């Protein structure tokens, strides 16, 4: 099992905000949803825009390029034009530090409906 990686202090990512970090060479965006932290691939599965440059609404991150939406807890894609879900990563909080596992988890299937 891979080691968790320290990526930020909890006070660096306020509720309702996100921060791009690197975990084992991958760009990941850490999101604070009401005091709970989640981590999702920073790279949009459509045309590789950086999701951390997008917007966060509740538990949904919106890609800045064409507006695809991803659920930050599951990585599930919720809106076109992306059709593939994004990987998510387990997160732990240790004191005032946010740690992310480099072990990606991916939601199976194409979940959105046309
Ligand atoms: S690059 Fe994200 S929706 Fe197109």
Automatic annotation (TrEMBL):
SUPFAM superfamilies: ISP domain. GO terms for molecular function: 2 iron, 2 sulfur cluster binding; metal ion binding; monooxygenase activity; oxidoreductase activity, acting on paired donors, with incorporation or reduction of molecular oxygen. Keywords: 2Fe-2S, Iron, Iron-sulfur, Metal-binding. Residues 5-100 form the Rieske domain. It holds the Pfam family Rieske. It comes from the Bacteria. This is Non-heme iron oxygenase ferredoxin subunit. The lineage of its organism: Bacteria, Bacillati, Candidatus Sysuimicrobiota, Candidatus Sysuimicrobiia, Candidatus Sysuimicrobiales.
């Amino acid at each position: 099992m891979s080691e968790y990686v320290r990526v930020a202090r909890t006070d660096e990512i306020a509720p309702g905000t996100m921060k791009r970090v690197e975990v084992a060479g991958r760009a990941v965006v850490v999101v604070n949803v009401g005091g709970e932290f989640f981590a999702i691939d920073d790279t949009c599965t459509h045309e590789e825009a950086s999701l951390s440059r997008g917007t966060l609404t509740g538990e949904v991150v919106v890609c800045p390029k064409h507006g695809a939406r991803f659920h930050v807890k599951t990585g599930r894609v919720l809106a076109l034009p992306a059709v593939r879900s994004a990987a998510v990563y387990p997160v732990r909080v240790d004191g005032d530090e946010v740690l992310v596992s480099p072990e990606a988890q991916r939601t199976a299937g194409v979940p959105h409906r046309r």
